[in-house]
Amino acid sequence: MTTIKNYINGDFQNPIKGNWIDNYNPSNGEIYGQLPDSTKEDVENAYIAAKSAFPSWSQTSLEERSRILIKISELLETNLQRFAEAESKDNGKPVSLAKAVDIPRAASNFRFFGNAITQFASESHESIGQQAVNYTLRQPIGVVGCISPWNLPLYLFTWKIAPALAAGNCVVAKPSEVTPLTAFLLGDICNEAGLPKGVLNIVHGLGESTGQAIVEHPDIKAISFTGGTTTGAHIARVAAPMFKKLSLELGGKNPNIIFADCDYEEMLSTTVRSSFANQGQICLCGSRIFIEASIYEKFKTDFIKKVKALKVGHPSESDTNIGALVSKSHLDKVKEYIQIAKDENGIVLCGGNEVKVKGYENGYYLEPTVIEVQSNDCRVNQEEIFGPVVTMMPFQNEDDVLKMANKVKYGLSATLWTNNLKRTMHLTNQLQAGIVWVNTWMLRDLRTPFGGVKASGVGREGGFEALRFFTEAKNVCIKY
Ligand code: TXE
Fold this sequence. Notes:
- InterPro entries: Ald_DH/histidinol_DH, Ald_DH_C, Ald_DH_CS_CYS, Ald_DH_CS_GLU, Ald_DH_N, Aldehyde_DH_dom.
- It holds the Pfam family Aldedh.
- The chain is α/β, with parallel strands linked by helices.
- It is built from 15 helices and 25 strands.
- The protein has helices at about 40-60, 60-80, 80-90, 95-115, 155-165, 180-195, 205-215, 230-240, 265-275, 295-310, 330-345, 380, 400-405, 420-430, 465-470, and strands at about 1-5, 5-10, 10-15, 20-25, 30-35, 125, 130-140, 145, 170-175, 200, 220-225, 245-250, 255-260, 290, 345-350, 355, 360-365, 370, 390-395, 410, 415, 435-440, 455, 455-460, 470-480.
- Helix 5 (about 155-165) links the parallel strand 8 (about 145) and strand 9 (about 170-175).
- It starts with a strand and ends with a strand.
- Ligand TXE binds near residues 211 and 412.
């Protein structure tokens, strides 16, 4: 059994009240360990450690901060296999995916912000004729809270922690209680890299107790959250009256718009990936596919053939394309949406069934599922399913598809397949999203702003946007 502990002030600690939560392995449905059911007392201890470490860390030179963050990055790379296996065991994703994406990106997050902080500058303004000069200080906030979800556990956990630390803050962080393992393993890496005690503190537990305690803590001045829209709205209600800085990266229901003039084979292979990568548990997945009517039947035939060739299997198998969903409750939620689609006259073109993987019959496996829908207004086109399920329907022209793409409460990302420049400029300008990919998907440059509009959240992560979020700007005006 793997016992996960809180990482507070550089040490591993049991929850003060002595309560624990079972930790499941999605690939076989078995309990493989436990994690702390931390309370506000544990959060207070983490806050005290962070507060004590802040004066020194905030005055640590940029070169030293950079050195330590890059060292963490290097240690994650050295421990790639161990972290990838841990991530897969906790989340159900294929080890191959964790090795290729999750852990390398966690390492990149630390390396990127270890470098970015040495280039992060602010501006000055000379008040001509006033004998005055202004300069802007961008000072660290103090103790900040980072709360992350279960779909890309270490990837998203470090996407918040790295800029927070780089900017000179100290952190109280909570990973999802569903996937705590790699966050737990990160503690040793931080100690080995020489991160001073108390600069990063990781408290495990449930959202409504441990997470809530972080959000409502009066002296944790900023909250960076990634997770569901409902939870994001709740956090905003708690934090807003406390005037905390908030970064909310929430859900998505992203359109994948395919015109007949696209590079067809590139589009087809990428669309399989954008539909089912990570079992469809990425808020950036293109879960609503819109195909120009002239190629609709051809696409339907070709796409279904490729989807049927995907292998649902144990995450440890090198040829597994689709691993286990993250939990029994999530599997049931996704299955419920497939039933809703049928009730709304959707046609399940392929998939839709649970899979019993030999030897792992209690694991949470589901076939990749494609549903042909009659209207964009149906529930499976309006609500986030967050599983290996996509819908598809034809469109007649640009105006038709733009209306449908934007007619949803979310606005995170969009994908557009066309070689027509005028169409590209028009649609990318009009799509209601924070990220628009043209003739690609999930191509990420960490310098770019990351986040959504509407119900997909508030604020942007990435690049200098993240460093601005984790600092307070102060204008100093000197008359001479
Ligand atoms: O979210 P939850 P999940 C979205 C994705 C999906 C969801 C999946 O689209 O909707 O997140 O993640 C903690 N106070 N994105 O189900 O339940 C909880 O313990 C404080 C969008 O995990 O919101 C966990 O650590 N914290 C994103 C975290 O919040 C609370 C990418 C998320 O849990 C809390 C990834 C509370 N009251 C997923 N309740 C993007 N846009 O990048 C829960 N938590």
